[in-house]
Amino acid sequence: MKDRKNPHRAALRALHLVLFTSFLAVSAFADPNSSSNLKILEKLGEISTGKQPKSAYFSPDNRRVFVPLLLERGVDVFTLSGGELRFEKRLAVPGSHATGFVEAMIDETRNEVWISNMEENKAHIFDLMSLEYKTSVDTGGVMPKVIAANPNKTLAAVSNWLSGTISVINMDDKQLLWTLKVGVTPRGLAWSDDGNFLYVAIFDKPEIAVVDTRTRKVVKRFRYFEGTGAARHVIYHKGRLIVSDMYRGSVCLLNATDGRMLTWKRIGPNLNTIVLWTPQSGNGAPANGEAKNAVIFASSRGRNNPTDYTKPGPEFGEVFILSAKDLSVLDKVTGKNQPTGLAVSSDGQFLVFTNFLDADMELYRVYRGAL
Predict the structure, then answer these.
(1) Longest distance between any two alpha carbons in the chain, whole Å
(2) d(CA 341, CA 267)
(3) Whether residue 123 sits in one domain with residue 107
(4) Sign of the four-CA dihedral 152, 76, 360, 201
(5) Together in a domain, 25 and 121
(6) Are residues 133 and 212 in the same domain?
(7) Are 113 and 84 in contact (CB under 8 A)?
(8) Which residue of 69, 102, 321, 338 has the lowest C-beta tally within 10 Å?
């Protein structure tokens, strides 16, 4: 009754209610662990995959996603159209019954996709357009993992987990050129811009082995932490190395010349895959409304099941977006059981990641203007 006699007080109370409701909505939407409260990722959907989807890769035109399967006899291929994923087909190697497909490399120059298979110790090659099987290459090592092409797309390097070696293959004639012992359990690979050096993540310790590809020797070893660690992936970018350490759940930035630690940040338990995305437009400068900064996408599998890591753990994993400059967290989303494979479209519009133990893949839109 008092408000009827005092309309100004009623209006003021209504305004306070609106502001309080808006505050609650914004607070619920904001990420308290993020350096920016502006959400960058929007979930569009998810789709089933084969068992244990180990990694994910966009085709150069961003119309397909390739998903190697660890417990299936092949690679699932999905089409992306209108913000929706659809299953297209499963790539299989004629006459082979092996499982154990791990990682891929896209060769746009020859329209090929290379897939490592750790049971057969080979890289299987398919046509990027027709998806037909072409040939297979023996890696010369045991349990191949990552495949990485040099900058001019003439050589492909392969890390061989059990033999502790890397292999270098001629991408034209598919001939094995040389192998080199680099250390126990090599995994991630990155080439320098001039192709003279190959950086190898050594998983049994916090170490990067530096290979001079001209002399075919390990010329340096960057020990970036004292004590225990597990270097998993490595990316070369503008004279720096971006390294994920699974044991420490961290991302590290190193000087690529001397291995000096520039900065590092703990992100989440069992940090798995990292991908770097850099903004591109016609003249190399950011367009209006587009991203202006390079960012790192990182998947954290979450804590392991205490008795068996191949079973769901006590929590879901997460996927993060980090500033490539200082590793600050820009945004994050919660996945399911062990987010593992991770890929970003070349135009930066879409993110996919696989939930390893759930046999599915999630699709997100990336709002680049917020980067």
Answers:
(1) 91
(2) 17
(3) yes
(4) negative
(5) no
(6) yes
(7) no
(8) 102
Give pLDDT tens digits for 139-183.
999 999 999 999 999 999 999 999 999 999 999 999 999 999 999
Measured CA to CA, the distance from residue 309 to residue 258 in angstroms comes to 35
3-class secondary structure, 3: helix
- Please provide residue 363's backbone torsions phi and psi, each rounded to the nearest 5 degrees: -120, 130
User: Which CATH number do you get for residue 335?
Assistant: 2.130.10.10
Specify whether the CB–CB gap between 53 and 65 falls below 8 A: no
Q: Could you tell me the residue range of the domain that residue 19 belongs to?
A: 1-30
Sign of the CA dihedral 286, 61, 271, 363? positive
Are 5 and 130 found together in one domain?
no
The number of helix segments (H) and strand segments (E) in the chain equals 2, 28
330 CB-contact burial (10 Å; exposed 0-12 / middle 13-18 / buried 19+): buried
181: CB partners within 8 A, 6+ apart: 164, 165
CB-based burial label for 289 (10 Å; 0-12, 13-18, 19+): exposed
Query: For the chain, what is the mean pLDDT?
Result: 89
Q: Is 25 in the same domain as 50?
A: no
Are 2 and 94 in a shared domain? no
Q: What phi and psi, each to the nearest 5 degrees, are found at residue 215?
A: -95, -15
Query: Could you tell me if 20 and 153 lie in one domain?
Result: no
Provide the number of structural domains found in the chain: 2
Task: Evaluate whether 311 touches 305 at the Cβ level (below 8 Å).
Answer: yes
Q: Where are any strands of DSSP class E within 256-328?
A: 261-266, 271-277, 295-300, 318-323
In single-letter form, the type of residue at position 313 comes to: G
Nearest C-alpha neighbor of 184 from the set 219, 141, 137: 141
Q: What is the mean pLDDT of residues 215-241?
A: 97
The residue to which tokens 């690679």 are assigned: 75
DSSP element (H, E) containing 22:
helix 7-29
Is there a single domain that holds both residue 61 and residue 8? Answer: no
Judge contact between 67 and 49, C-beta under 8 A: yes
d(CA 185, CA 142): 10
Report the SS3 class of residue 113.
strand
Residue type, 248: R
213 vs 180, 191, 202, 232, 241, CA distance in Å?
10, 10, 17, 21, 17
- Evaluated on CA atoms 313, 266, 343, 96, the torsion sign reads negative
